[in-house]
Amino acid sequence: AADTADSRGATSTSEAVPDPVRRARALWLFSYGLFSAGDATGSAALNTRALTLFTTAGDPWGIAAALGLRATLALVSGDLAGLGRDGSRSARMFRELGDPWGELQTVSPLAALAEIKGAYEEAERRQHEGLVMARELGLQAEVSARLSGLGRLALLARDFDRARDLHEQARRIAAEQGYKYGEIHSGMGLALGARRSGDLDAAEAHLLHLRDGYADVSSQAGDHLLLAELGFVAELRGDAHAAEAHHLAGLVIARTLGEPRALALSLEGLAGASALPANTSTATRAAILLGAAAAARRRAGAPLPPAERTDVDRITTATRATLGPAAFSEAYEQGTGLEPEEAVQATCTTTEG
């Protein structure tokens, strides 16, 4: 409620600015700040108002800035079509205006979109271009962000040594700049790399450091990913109850986020916990959850690319081994016809030992 009041107050105050372009820029700057503070709803409302004013005034810089922020907001909400449309237009306009700072603001959402689509060469190109721009502009926080982005791509390519090196560079620069979000981003990259390379103890240590050391600046999306990773670590250790507890806590956050890929990740994690006991009842639940997760990703236009299927493939293999191919396919197909919440209700996610 307070955030909504802030956005209403900003709109009201801006009416005192007679020049429409200056008024629009004030609204855009405030909306940018609201987004950075975690108020995506208030940010979107103000940014929409700013874009209308920019468009009416014919201000190309303002239009590009508002479209760029709208693309970033679209990434948070899972609107991938809107992200691609607005992000590409914003980048093109800033390039035509000769504004590398503005173009740099579009790198993160557009690189993320390419990664989601499995277009890793495009994602790496965008991250490299962004790194060059950030260094030329002397924006060290952006340098850290781009190094983390490149580290994530190295991780997906299973080049774990390079991924660790890039994330360590990113973390060091972020710490030097007092850039807490950069420390979190790079620290999560180190945790992801450790788990995927099989070092569960190191992965857990990174995750607990993030949980305990950055609670005051954490985001819901970050908390959701952290819980998912803790759940997968527990699953890989064979602890079904701990895995389920982490993924259920993550599911609560995913519901609040309302982002389809977050919900799908929680379902996949719960499927992993359900697959561990290796009995028909829990394996059937796992197959249903896997089907529902895959359907949610498809509906969002973001099916998992091969490089990101390691967890799902592992859980699928274990579930199919317990059920057999025919029973697995039947339960999986049942799941594809369910919304995420329906799948959770249908499977009654208490894991049986």
Give a quick summary of the entry.
The chain has 353 residues and is mainly alpha-helical. The chain has helices spanning 2-14, 20-36, 40-57, 60-77, 80-97, 100-105, 107-116, 120-137, 140-156, 160-177, 180-196, 200-213, 220-236, 240-257, 260-275, 280-299, 310-323, 325-336, 340-347.
Structure description:
- The chain is mainly alpha-helical and 353 residues long.
- Among the domains are: 139-197; 220-353.
- The protein is built from 19 helices and no strands.
- It has helices at 2-14, 20-36, 40-57, 60-77, 80-97, 100-105, 107-116, 120-137, 140-156, 160-177, 180-196, 200-213, 220-236, 240-257, 260-275, 280-299, 310-323, 325-336, 340-347.
- The termini are far apart.
- Residues 349-353 have low confidence and may be disordered.
* Helical run tally: 19
Main sheet, how many strands, which sense, barrel?
Answer: none
Kindly provide the radius of gyration, computed on alpha-carbon positions and rounded to a whole number of angstroms.
Answer: 21 Å
> Could you list the spans in which at least 5 consecutive residues all have pLDDT below 50?
349-353
The counted number of beta strands is 0
